[in-house]
Amino acid sequence: MLMNRLIEDERSSRQWTDISFFILGAATTITWDSIYMSVSYFQQFLGKQVLSVLSLCFSLPLFVAMLFCLCLKTQLPVKLMACLVRLCIAYMLGFCILILLAGSCDIEIPVGLLCFLVGLCGIASGVMQSMIASVTGLFSQFSLESGASASALKGTGGAILIPMAVQIGFLPAAMAGASTINQSLIVVFLLSSGMLLLSLLAVRIL
C-alpha cells in the first residue's frame, strides 16, 4: 500500500515537472510568435519591411544573449537562474500588456520605441531559453524522452499554435471583408499574457 502510494506520488511529481517545463518552454517563444502572427498590425508602423525589421530587432539581440549565456564559464546558481527567468517573463508580460493597450486604445507606438522594446524581448527570450536549457540538465532523472528537456522543447515548438489558432478563427471574417486586425491582436496578446502568467507559476519547479 505504501509502495503504491510512493509510486503514485513519483508519477504525479513527474507529470507536474513535465507540464511545468512545457509551459516554460512555450513562454520562451510565445511573445515572438504573437508578434509574428500579428504582423498586419505592426505593418501600419513599420511599412512593407515589417517582417525584416521585426526579425532583425528580435533575432540579433536573441543571438547575442544566447551566445553570452553559452560563453559563461561557470554554472549559475539555480536560484539566480530562477530569478532571471522570472525577470524575463515579467518583461515579456509587460510588453504583451503594452501591445494590448495600444491595440485596444488605438495608440500609435513610435517606431524607434517599438524596435527597442522588441529587441528587449529578444534578449529576454534568449536568456530564458538558455536558463531553461541549463536547468533541464539538472533534472537528470526526468531528462529522457518523456522528461523535462523534451517537454520544454515541445512547449517551445507548440507555442505558435496559440496565435495561429486565433488567426485561423478570424479568417472567415477577414475573407468577408471585415477589419479584424485589432481584434485578433487583442485576442492573441491576451492569450499570450495568460500563458506568461501561467509560466510565473511554473517557475516554482526551478
Structural class: mainly alpha
- Terminus-to-terminus distance: 31 Å
Count of helical stretches: 8
The general outline is globular
Helix content: over 70%
The number of distinct β-strands equals 0
**What's the Cα radius of gyration?**
19 Å
Q: N-to-C SSE series?
A: HHHHHHHH
Average of per-residue pLDDT values = 85
Strand percentage lies at under 5%
Poorly predicted runs are 1-10, 141-145
Q: Outline the biggest β-sheet.
A: none
Protein architecture, described:
The chain is 81% helix and 0% strand. The chain is mostly helical. The longest helix has 36 residues, at 2-37.
Please tag this protein with its features.
single chain; mainly alpha
Put the structure in a nutshell.
The protein has helices at about 1-35, 40-45, 50-70, 80-105, 110-135, 150-160, 160-175, 180-200.
Write the layout of secondary structure elements.
Elements: H1 2-37, H2 39-46, H3 50-70, H4 78-105, H5 111-136, H6 148-158, H7 161-175, H8 181-202
Helix pairs in contact: 1-5, 1-6, 1-7, 1-8, 3-5, 4-5, 4-8, 7-8
